[in-house]
Amino acid sequence: MSNASYVGDSTRRVTTKDLQEAKRSHHRWAMLTAYDYSTARVFDQAGIPVLLVGDSAANVVYGYDTTVPISIDELLPLVGGVARGAERALVVADLPFGAYEASAEQALASATRFMQRGAQAVKVEGGERISAQVKALTSSGIPVMGHLGVTPQAVNSLSGYRVQGRGDEEAEQMLRDARALEAAGAFAVVLEVVPAALAATITKELGIPTIGIGAGVECDAQVLVWQDMAGLRGGGRPARFVKEYADLNAVLGAAVEAFATEVRAGTYPSSEHSYR
Ligand SMILES: Nc1nc(=O)c2c([nH]1)NC[C@@H]1CN(c3ccc(C(=O)N[C@@H](CCC(=O)O)C(=O)O)cc3)CN21
Ligand SMILES: CC(C)C(=O)C(=O)O
Ligand SMILES: [Mg+2]
């Protein structure tokens, strides 16, 4: 690896300890979602140190409206593909809605299935209310990433994807949730759609890294859904935090049109792409 990454040692897989060390030495890093082997390879070779097999696969892979309907069985095979494509990145699997809320036993049973498909860690949404699950997982050797702020699996009780943690009461609760996750053994926490000043406070107060998505520049790391940052837009207005670093809708659309045009014209395949 060139200078692409300041996290860890380019000759071996990134560890949760490397991420703590990056926080200590003030090196920011980028996380991306991945849902298949081919893209995981590209992101891994670009030096992205952490890949998340997000339950956002519900939206960008399966076309559901929210992340609520996706099942363990729909997410598990994607983890296998990403794990086989990622040589150096730490692979984190989102536990889907319904896979961990009920008990520590349920969380352990679900997380075990993801770890056995090649994940090196799991992510769960929530703070104090799931600290028993986080303790059970971490004490069984399963690294846990937390997720606070907009927790999309709770979209039906949050009534939408509005900013979370505005006002003193909500801000104090989020700080308590973040501290509970750290105390339960989590190695990092995602902060989604949170006022930048609150995310900065949480980042300062925690010993573990914060990973922002719509949570300002003071987080230790940033994450985006890869289709969002690459301009592979679905329907609807993108969230304010989305920055498009490429226009894959245009690039891929033009390639597909060129292929179809050549097929219709009989110019593809030429002899170069044929066998004798
Ligand atoms: N493609 C994709 N990208 C994501 O970032 C993503 C998913 N899917 N699926 C699961 C959740 C849903 N997420 C979302 C979706 C919408 C907003 C959004 O539009 N928020 C408003 C907030 C407005 C406010 O409170 O002021 C926005 O305008 O940004 C935020 C997060 C993030 N996650
Ligand atoms: C946006 C990230 C943090 C996520 O949870 C997902 O992609 O499912
Ligand atoms: Mg998720």
From TrEMBL:
Its EC number is 2.1.2.11. Its cofactor is Mg(2+). Keywords: Cytoplasm, Magnesium, Metal-binding, Pantothenate biosynthesis, Transferase. Pathway: Cofactor biosynthesis; (R)-pantothenate biosynthesis; (R)-pantoate from 3-methyl-2-oxobutanoate: step 1/2. Binds 1 Mg(2+) ion per subunit. It is found in: Cytoplasm. InterPro entries: Pantoate_hydroxy_MeTrfase, Pyrv/PenolPyrv_kinase-like_dom, Pyrv_kinase-like_dom_sf. One of its GO terms (molecular function) is 3-methyl-2-oxobutanoate hydroxymethyltransferase activity. The active site is at 192 (proton acceptor). Mg(2+) binds at residues 55, 94, 125. It catalyses: (6R)-5,10-methylene-5,6,7,8-tetrahydrofolate + 3-methyl-2-oxobutanoate + H2O = 2-dehydropantoate + (6S)-5,6,7,8-tetrahydrofolate. 3-methyl-2-oxobutanoate binds at residues 55-56, 94, 123. Catalyzes the reversible reaction in which hydroxymethyl group from 5,10-methylenetetrahydrofolate is transferred onto alpha-ketoisovalerate to form ketopantoate. PANTHER family: 3-METHYL-2-OXOBUTANOATE HYDROXYMETHYLTRANSFERASE. Homodecamer; pentamer of dimers. NCBIfam families: panB, PRK00311.1. Belongs to the PanB family. This is 3-methyl-2-oxobutanoate hydroxymethyltransferase. It comes from Jatrophihabitans telluris. The gene is panB.
